[in-house]
Amino acid sequence: MTSAALSPPSARPLAVSNWLLSLCGLIFVMVVVGGITRLTESGLSITEWKPITGAIPPLTEAQWLREFELYKRIPEYQQINKGMSLADFKNIFFWEWAHRQLGRVIGLAALLPLAWFAFKKAIPSGYGWRTGSIFLLVCVQGAIGWWMVASGLTERTDVSHVRLAVHLLTALFIFGFALWTALDLRSASAVPRKIPTLGLWAFAALAIQLLFGAYVAGLDAGYAFNTWPLMGDSLYPAAAPWLEPFFRNFVDNPVTVQFIHRWWAFVVVAFAVMLARRLKRVSRKHSIALHAAVGTQILLGIWTLWSGVDLHVAVAHQATAALVVAAFVAGVHRLAVAGALSRSRAAPLVAA
C-alpha cells in the first residue's frame, strides 16, 4: 500500500511541494547573500544575537554609533580595520543584517506554511516528519550561524573556517533535503524514493568538495595561488609550509586545502558523468542540466583563481555550487523514479 493510500482525503501533495520549492528558492538566495557577506568581510559587523529585536536595523545616529562601538571592541577592528569610518562600517553592517534578516524570513517561510498545512491535514502520510525536520533544521541553522560568528568575537580576527563549513554544508543539506522531498511529493502517488547506490556515492563525493570549498573560503585559501592548473610552477609547491600533526594540513593549511579543492572537483565530474550517462536513457534534460551545472562550476572555480578572487566571480561560484547540488538531487531523484518504475513493471513477470 502506498503512502498516498494512507493519506487523509485533504492531503495536497502538490501544494506542499510548491511550498518546499519556494523555500529552496529562499535558501538559494541565502547562500548567495552569505557568500557576499563572507567575501566582503562583513560577518562580524553585528556582535550581538537578537533573533527578534535585531530585525530592526539602527535608525538613529546614536544607534549607529552604539553598534560601531561594539564592533570596535572585537579583534577584527582592532587588528585589521582600525580607523574605519562610520560610513564603511554601515556598508559591512548592511550585508550581515541582510543575511540575518533573510534567515528570519526563511524561518517564517518554514514555520507558517507548515503550521497551516498541518492544521488543514494537507501533508500526505509519511511526510510529516520530513517537513517538521526541515523546519527544525532551519532553526538549528540559525544557532549554527551565531556559533560561527561567536568564534570571531574574542580572540580571532575572523570566524572559524570549520564552523563556517558546518554552516554552509547545513544550508546546502537543508536545500537538498527540501528539494528531494518536494520532488517526492510531485512523483506518482507521492511515494518517497530511495537514493540509489550510485547516488549515495555521488552525494558523498559532492559533500567532500563542498566541505573543502568552505575551507577555502574560510581560510582565504583562494588567494594562496592564482594560477591554474599549476600552483605557481608546480603541481604542489614544494616550499609550501607543512603543519604538524599531518592531518591538520587537510583542515588548516590553505595551500593543501586549495590543492584538494582544485582536484577533487574532477572526482565530482567523474560521478556527474556516470550519472549523466544513466540519465540520458530516461531524461535527457536532467543529463544536460547536470553537465551544464558542473561544467559551469569548474570554469567559475578556475576564473575565481585567475581573477584573484574577484567578488562577482567568487559569488557566482558559490551560487553555482547550490545549483550543482540541485542538479545532483534532481538527477539522482529522476534515476530513483525510473528504477522504481522499472521494478514495478518487472514484478508481474517475476511472479509469473
TrEMBL record:
Record keyword Iron present: yes
Pathways involved: Porphyrin-containing compound metabolism; heme A biosynthesis; heme A from heme O: step 1/1
Signal peptide (residue range): none
Transmembrane helix among keywords: yes
Cellular location(s): Cell membrane; Membrane
Top EC class for this record: oxidoreductase
Names of the cofactor(s): heme b
Alphabetized InterPro entries for the sequence: COX15/CtaA_fam, HemeA_Synthase_type2
EC annotation from Swiss-Prot or TrEMBL: 1.17.99.9
PANTHER family assigned to the protein according to its UniProt record, in alphabetical order: CYTOCHROME C OXIDASE ASSEMBLY PROTEIN COX15, CYTOCHROME C OXIDASE ASSEMBLY PROTEIN COX15 HOMOLOG
Function: Catalyzes the conversion of heme O to heme A by two successive hydroxylations of the methyl group at C8. The first hydroxylation forms heme I, the second hydroxylation results in an unstable dihydroxymethyl group, which spontaneously dehydrates, resulting in the formyl group of heme A.
Description of how the protein assembles with itself and partners: Interacts with CtaB.
Similarity field: Belongs to the COX15/CtaA family. Type 2 subfamily.
Name assigned to this protein: Heme A synthase
Native source species: Sphingomonas kaistensis
Name of encoding gene: ctaA
